[in-house]
Design goal:
Helices cover 11% and strands 48% of the residues. It contains 10 helices and 35 strands. The strands form 8 sheets. It has a 16-stranded antiparallel β-sheet with strand order 1-2-10-11-18-19-22-23-24-25-26-27-30-31-34-35. Strands 8-7-6-17-12 form a 5-stranded antiparallel β-sheet, with helices on one face. Strand 34 and strand 35 form a beta hairpin.
């Protein structure tokens, strides 16, 4: 409504962020599908084929005022505010002597919302990603005889989309700057190279007292004099506004084939046996990410003694990787060669496969005289066996494995895993009474045994019945034990550190007491000194868990069906469901983990919080909250369902 719209624009105005006005038309979709089929050999064979194409255009947040920033709602008012990132255009530089940004003429000034506006990352994101998809497939069957009918199904899909987020940058990935860096102005050097901000020297760690150790414990060997290690504590957060947004080119290629044979073994027995194979391949290419390793080299700049020009120290040391000095104070005019050196592509390839062999026989035992004396129909059965194998592999390139992508959260681990399961199953429908002293009484039972290669065995079963004393009323009820074993993605998805949390009550000006923060791993020295993330983005360790157990659910149902003969065409049903689920597979929300740790002190939850050397959960990948898949949830749902049909076919449901 207009009031909400004004609150949005008020938030944008307060933050100084631009926003669009007027109207926009975008996100259009083009979709075309064709199907063709034919029968042959006097209808004994049939073939159907289809093909389709779909293209979806993008819709960016920047093209709508309510998406022109990442909105947050105040808890105690109706107002909105705009979130932004401290990895800003001008840069946020954290030191022991204060947090700074760059003012006029390469001067350091204290960093605050006025001198250093947060970076607005919202407009780069998609409301709808561009997407292009091709699909095709075919189905065929041919009846050789009533006993032999081969069939085939083939399906293929290729989908490609691009996901864009805000530009990369230096996300506080390095902890120092050398004081002889030629890009530092005299004023900047005087501010951050004050003695109290220099990297410490550890005379006890090694024999050489010139060895420097930064705050993260990185050792810089000595031997050439203290001047070579004249480094200041300096955590830079500077957005790569010159390089454009980060783009992930994501592709899914899916293939599925089913081949089988079915037919009648006799008037009483029918069989079906098939083999199914499916594969999903997921290559992904990321562009415009900064390389953390190259950031360290491109910022470690000295004056070339031969030319007097800035040069990477690594070049003078003979490391031939093409390092180009990066002047991160040159806003909007960064050397293109420096960007070419820092921006690195990343490639990952994932693949999942599933193979299934299933064979079953369905029979009517009434054809062999197996029936209750009060029933017209015989006992119906279905028995069979199934073998299934699932596998997953994920191969990231070297940059991804080493966590070399700035802003990605952490390293992506290569992984390969699989499991198989052997199953037998049976089901029976047993009419006990039909059309005699009562209308109908029947029972249905089923059982499945599964043996997994992971060492798990499961039993699932059901029993349910129907009782109709007359044609006007039918009672039904049953019990079902269902089990869902973890799938290959839940088991073997790679674990890596990504941005999933939204707050830390112990950073910035703490919202929790020192004792409460100590439960989360904050030391007394760190309390009150942990930098806050202005973008409210914190690290979490996400991914699969090969130690998962199956989920187990119990379902109880009771119902009644009314079809009174004095109201022809009328039918009504009432059903009651009670479903309980134990060991549900899910991941704890990192925010919930922190809240519950502080509120309850639960040692299990508190152990999931891992802080880095500065006590933060965002400055480096070493700080994170574990949020991998776990059997953590229990759920229960109790509900009723009613419906009715009148002779006029009007229907109501609740």
């Amino acid at each position: 409504n207009n009031d909400a719209g004004s609150r949005v624009t008020d938030a944008l105005d307060a933050a100084g962020f631009p926003y669009p006005t007027g109207n926009v038309v975008d996100g259009g979709t083009f979709d075309i599908t064709g199907v063709i089929g034919a029968g042959f050999d006097d209808g004994r064979g049939h073939v159907t084929a289809y093909a389709g194409y779909r293209k979806i255009n993008q819709a960016l947040q920047r093209d709508r005022d309510y998406g022109a920033c990442s909105l947050a709602a105040a808890s105690d008012t109706d107002a909105f505010s705009c979130s932004g990132s401290g990895t800003s255009r001008l840069g946020t530089f954290i030191t022991k002597v204060g947090n700074f940004t760059v003012g006029p003429n390469r001067t350091f000034v204290p960093s605050n919302g006025t001198t250093n506006p947060p970076f607005n990352f919202g407009p780069y994101n998609h409301f709808q990603r561009p997407d292009e998809r091709y699909v095709l497939g075919a189905f065929a069957n041919y009846e050789i005889s009533t006993a032999v009918e081969p069939y085939l199904e083939v399906m293929f899909m290729d989908d490609r989309t691009e996901a864009q987020i805000a530009p990369s940058g230096i996300f506080f990935n390095t902890g120092f700057v050398n004081c002889d860096n030629p890009f530092l102005s005299p004023q900047q050097r005087s501010v951050i190279c004050a003695p109290e901000n220099l990297v410490g020297f550890d005379e006890t760690a090694v024999d050489d007292p010139t060895t420097a150790v930064d705050e993260r414990g990185t050792v810089f060997p000595g031997g050439a004099g203290v001047g070579d290690f004249n480094r200041a504590v300096f955590y830079p957060g500077r957005r790569n506004v010159e390089g454009g947004g980060r783009v992930s080119d994501i592709q899914h290629t899916d293939f599925r084939i089913v081949g089988g044979v079915r037919g009648d073994l006799s008037p009483a027995w029918y069989y079906d046996a098939y083999y199914q194979f499916g594969r999903v391949t997921n290559p992904s290419i990321s562009r415009n990410d900064f390389s953390v390793q190259r950031i360290g080299r491109a910022l470690d700049v000295v004056t070339d003694p031969a030319t007097g020009n800035p040069v990477c120290r690594s070049v003078l040391q003979g490391i031939a990787d093409g390092c180009v000095p990066y002047d991160f104070f040159a806003f909007g005019s960064v050397d293109a060669a420096a960007l070419g050196y820092l921006q690195t592509p990343a490639i990952t390839i994932g693949r999942t496969e599933e193979s299934v062999f299933n064979a079953s026989i369905t029979g009517d035992l009434g054809q062999h005289g197996v029936r209750f004396p009060w029933a017209n129909d015989g006992i119906g059965v279905n028995v069979g066996t199934e073998y299934r194998k699932e596998s997953l592999s994920f191969l990231p390139d070297r940059a991804s494995q080493e966590g070399d992508l700035a802003g990605s959260g952490g390293a992506s681990t290569p992984i390969s895993g699989s499991f198989d399961v052997k199953e037998v199953f049976g089901e029976a429908r047993i009419p006990i009474v039909q059309d005699t002293f009562i209308e109908e009484l029947l029972l249905e039972v089923g059982y499945r045994f599964s043996d997994y290669s992971t060492g798990i065995t499961t039993d699932t079963y059901k029993i349910q019945g129907e009782f109709a004393p007359t044609r006007d009323i039918r009672l039904r009820g049953g019990y079902n034990r269902a089990v869902r074993a973890p799938n290959v993605v839940e088991l073997f998805s790679p674990q890596n550190v990504v941005l999933v949390g939204t707050f830390d009550p112990c950073d910035g000006v703490p919202d929790a007491t020192q004792a409460q923060c100590a439960l989360t791993g904050v030391t007394a020295a760190q309390y009150g000194n942990i930098p806050e993330n202005p973008a409210a983005q914190y690290n979490g360790l996400v991914g699969g868990n090969p130690e998962l157990d199956p989920e187990v659910a119990d379902t109880y149902t009771v119902g009644v069906v009314l079809t009174p003969r004095f109201l022809p065409g009328f039918a009504a049903t009432v059903d009651y469901f009670d479903i309980s689920l134990d060991g549900a597979i899910s991941a704890l929300n990192p925010d919930v983990t922190i809240e519950e740790c502080i509120d309850t002190g639960d040692p299990l939850l508190c152990s999931l919080i891992n802080r880095d050397a500065r006590g933060s959960l965002w400055i480096s990948p070493a700080g994170f909250v574990e949020a991998t898949n776990q059997n953590i949830a229990s759920r229960r749902r109790v509900s009723t369902s009613t419906s009715a049909t009148t002779p006029s076919s009007a229907r109501w449901a609740r």
